[in-house]
Amino acid sequence: xxxxxxxxxxxxxxxxxxxxxxxxxxxxxxxxxxxxxxxxxxxxxxxxxxxxxxxxxxxxxxxxxxxxxxxxxxxxxxxxxxxxxxxxxxxxxxxxxxxxxxxxxxxxxxxxxxxxxxxxxxxxxxxxxxxxxxxxxxxxxxxxxxxxxxxxxxxxxxxxxxxxxxxxxxxxxxxxxxxxxxxxxxxxxxxxxxxxxxxxxxxxxxxxxxxxxxxxxxxxxxxxxxxxxxxxxxxxxxxxxxxxxxxxxxxxxxxxxxxxxxxxxxxxxxxxxxxxxxxxxxxxxxxxxxxxxxxxxxxxxxxxxxxxxxxxxxxxxxxxxxxxxxxxxxx
Amino acid sequence: xxxxxxxxxxxxxxxxxxxxxxxxxxxxxxxxxxxxxxxxxxxxxxxxxxxxxxxxxxxxxxxxxxxxxxxxxxxxxxxxxxxxxxxxxxxxxxxxxxxxxxxxxxxxxxxxxxxxxxxxxxxxxxxxxxxxxxxxxxxxxxxxxxxxxxxxxxxxxxxxxxxxxxxxxxxxxxxxxxxxxxxxxxxxxxxxxxxxxxxxxxxxxxxxxxxxxxxxxxxxxxxxxxxxxxxxxxxxxxxxxxxxxxxxxxxxxxxxxxxxxxxxxxxxxxxxxxxxxxxxxxxxxxxxxxxxxxxxxxxxxxxxxxxxxxxxxxxxxxxxxxxxxxxxxxxxxxxxxxx
Lengths: 331, 339
Description:
The complex is a heterodimer. Chain A is of the alpha/beta class. Chain A has helices at 26-30, 63-70, 93-102, 110-113, 120-130, 138-148, 167-179, 197-214, 225-231, 249-254, 259-267, 307-311, and strands spanning 10-23, 35-48, 52-56, 78-83, 86-87, 103-106, 185-189, 217-222, 234-239, 242-248, 317-319, 322-324. In chain A, the strands form two sheets. Chain A has an eight-stranded mixed beta sheet with strand order 6-7-8-3-9-10-12-11, sandwiched between helices. Chain A has a four-stranded antiparallel beta sheet with strand order 2-1-4-5, covered by helices on one side. In chain A, a hairpin with a 2-residue loop joins β11 and β12. In chain A, α5 (120-130) runs parallel beside α7 (167-179) and α7 packs parallel to α8 (197-214). The radius of gyration of chain A is 21 Å and the shape is globular. The N and C termini of chain A lie far apart (45 Å). Helix content of chain B is 32%, strand content 24%. Chain B is built from twelve helices and twelve strands. Chain B has helices spanning 48-54, 82-88, 100-103, 110-121, 126-140, 156-168, 186-203, 214-220, 238-243, 248-255, 296-300, 322-329; strands at 4-17, 20-33, 37-41, 63-72, 75-76, 93-96, 174-178, 206-211, 223-228, 231-237, 306-309, 312-314. In chain B, the strands form two sheets. An eight-stranded mixed beta sheet of chain B has the order 6-7-8-3-9-10-12-11, with helices on both faces. The longest helix of chain B is centred in the middle third of the chain and has 18 residues, at 186-203. Chain B is globular and about 65 Å long. Chain B starts with a strand and ends in a 10-residue tail after the last helix. Chain A binds chain B through residues 58-59, 166-169, 196-202, 204-205, 223-227, 229-230, 253, 263-265, 267-275, 277, 279-280, 282, 284-286, and chain B through 43-44, 141, 155-158, 185-191, 194, 197, 212-216, 218-219, 238-239, 242-243, 252-261, 265, 267-272, 274.
């Protein structure tokens, strides 16, 4: 049930999404040690049809949690997430089943994502079976799916087991499986971080190619801006559950505005010996997420922090084509 | 005292699997100068970890060094008795693993584990060990009150710092770091590399850094050794290897890396195919099946390593044509021609 909405129509609207966990129940709570971790805390953005957005940040910044909220692997504890104008929190029964076929998640480690005891055929059949596709169509669709991700001569893979494939081949299978129900939206969570550099490029090329051919909307989660830039025209920078900066990837690379983004840009690995060895403009060590700093969550690592940063949470400010949450730009 | 601390000479390491012999490395030769960081770079399965671990003989039970020498300060480590080798570990040669969580014991505090090395291996008294533990934590920039913490209480980057502190405990001459930053975010990765470089320079230690990531090599290593399918393909000064590569594999590795400094986001160039099965390697150059420049001789005869420039060793039949191959290798289409 694909809609024929115009391309600029938002496919996903996230409004003030929150995902708060309570940690340390039981004995810890009796001893007064329970706390709340705000994995996602007041995140808002929209994603248009056919748009790819990178979620960029360090581990613990909430990028993976945000991705899981979008595909409804987690339930938001606050705010709303709309997919195609419908709140995903309300989805039940057939509606939920349809939603599950329209959105997909591509996992980080292909060796974890695929059951090692299933043949490729069996792994690829599962989503088809879940979506109640007639069994007669399975083989054809599986082969078409493997061709889509440019696995040459796909029939040879059908009865192999995951350990008989290389990491790059297996990640293509994972991608093919995610795409086999022709979703409209995919979340790719560090899909190449487990792969060797020489095969990364191939997998990224396939991802880009498939996305363009199927006009997919995508969220690409990574800590490496060079990879995000390769697949996303727009980047959202997250830190400790909040959005720090949101703009086109080229703008962000050329002139990062938020001090955190500046550190991320400076830290991007470069394959050249002729590069700056200046220390990064950022303090060491992310704060304890159970006990984040007051005001701006980044302030204790920020080289430019001033009084206001401790007192007031910066709200989103429009700077040119970008949104920035930093008091350097606050009115 | 020579300028070379460690020297691999024609090292061959063989794994016995059933009745098969798999040569994880063959003919591996390179030097580690004193006070230098040498990067050992290549894809998974290329033999880089096996080779690095062979230095202190921390290799699998079914593996053995079948041929060659590993000279450390003039002593051949290959022929050393197990007992002498054991005395060398931590004191002279220490190890930083990829995931510190796997090397730290989760049920003991980090101080206890530091003491194990300092007292057990170094023979320090309890009081001296306590003092040295504090020094080490200060050196790697962790607050000393965290000595009594357990490994799980540290973040990934902090654990890697603990692992560095452990490696430095007994003032070794050589540290072998196996993918020390691979599991870390870009910011922490950079901070750990900066710290490793600072300490290495301050203390004059030599480091072998094993990695699959040429950006890590580019950032921190003085010399670079590129391995493929168990063999050294190219080795030289890092600047020379990355700016003027002679081996098509090195050219390919560099192309495959997304460079944020480059102007566009044109297609990245993968190296198609996969490394050969080491139980049954191709007859000629091991890279030939994936090499866009392979000729008849490449498929027939394994090229011998040759010194193409002073200190720049290359194993490629076409290394004389490198200038022209570099231009070809920078094009996406070139790498698409491989069957």
